[in-house]
Amino acid sequence: MIDCPQLLAAMASDAMIQAVNGDDPLMHALRTLSLACAKASGSSFGTLMAQGLLTAARFCHGKTTLSQSDFATLLHEVVAALAHRGGAGLGDKTLLDGLHALALESQPAPADPGALMRATLEETLAAFRQRPNRIGRARMFAERSIGLDDPGQVALLRMVEAL
After folding, report:
1. 1 to 5, 41, 56, 72, 156: CA distances (angstroms)
2. pTM of the predicted protein model
3. Would you say the C-alpha torsion 74, 125, 114, 9 has a positive or negative sign?
4. Which of 71, 14, 65, 72 is nearest to 38 (CA)?
5. Which pLDDT tens digit goes with each residue over 91-142?
6. 20 to 30 Å CA-CA from 146: which of 7, 22, 94, 130?
């Protein structure tokens, strides 16, 4: 079984080996990361991560840059795709809640997007900490998950911190 840090390292090393060429480098880079993620892990989190990256790759087809509006739309599309694939919804105390919060906070363009993203995710963690997990492995221990952070939301925060 591969854990989240190992999954991210495997994705990055595999994707770094492959050159990003062609007329559509943003889409190709996201697609390459999606494939590396799928190859590195068969876990539910890995599957959802690969789906999210593939959704982002499709959205970025033909784009060389993303505006703030594009970024918010991309995040909303990723949330919809992951909800459909994984069966979670907003408010279930999952990664979706963090992605949704980022989409809402990305308009208008912030002066320091990294700081805003970190603060948004920290606020989301705090807002959901006293709620039970409703999906994923932690749902089986819903009452014991109260007072704890959702692992998917924490992983998203750590990824944003690494940017």
Report:
1. 12, 8, 26, 33, 20
2. 0.82
3. negative
4. 14
5. 999 999 999 999 988 766 677 888 999 999 999 999 999 999 888 777 778 8
6. 7
